[in-house]
């Protein structure tokens, strides 16, 4: 199923649930650099582009079909000139890696593609029972550590990598030293095999970051907003 323009417009119009917090961290007119890691279709970056009109973006996505959506969407919503697209996954070791590519369509959802958003470097585990409609097939993708890339200092990271969070963080330890805030999708259950859970990630980051918003709580999955300690 292809996501329709009206559904994309509706999603973008809802904005970001952390807009208030972000505007307390960064001035609206700041020339910040945003890394959207596991960006799928880049609609989150479109939303951030409207919050921060002078921001530039690094977009990371390993699935070929999703990269096509990204290029279409950033052109359609007028931000292509502000984006650099990397058709790769981020991890802690460079090379070709096995990837579990997701597909399928959630029942009752129309005009919005659901199956392209759950691919992972990790083998699906409880995701298979939590979202029975979602299927996976193996593929091979490119993976590169963030620290191997020559980038401008990143101000803010949006990370949605389906259990591979620590791999991204470990491969980007130098780059993350410049980062002021990170919005990371996390889980309290092993949706993917051997994934770090929320508490593991929070503990690892606790020396340098504090959690200022947690939509995961005691639930199965959600997001945490991590702000660099002053």
Would you summarize the structure shown here?
By secondary structure, this protein is α/β, with parallel strands linked by helices. The protein contains eight helices and ten strands. The protein has a seven-stranded mixed beta sheet, sandwiched between helices. The chain has a three-stranded mixed beta sheet with strand order 4-6-5, with no helix packed on it.
Fraction of residues in β-strands: 25-35%
CATH fold topology = Rossmann fold
Give the name of the CATH architecture: 3-Layer(aba) Sandwich
Distance between the termini: 45 Å
What is the mean pLDDT?
A: 97
Order of helices and strands: HHEHEHEEEHEEHHEHEE
Counted up, domains total: 1
Query: Which structural class do you get from the secondary structure elements?
Result: alpha/beta
Multimeric state: single chain
Structure description:
With 230 residues, this protein is an alpha/beta fold. It has a single domain (5-228), classed as Vaccinia Virus protein VP39 (Rossmann fold, 3-Layer(aba) Sandwich). It has 8 helices and 10 strands. The strands form 2 sheets. Strands 3-2-1-7-8-10-9 form a 7-stranded mixed sheet, sandwiched between helices. Strand 2 (56-60), helix 4 (64-76) and strand 3 (83-86) form a beta-alpha-beta unit. The radius of gyration is 17 Å and the shape is globular. The mean pLDDT is 97.
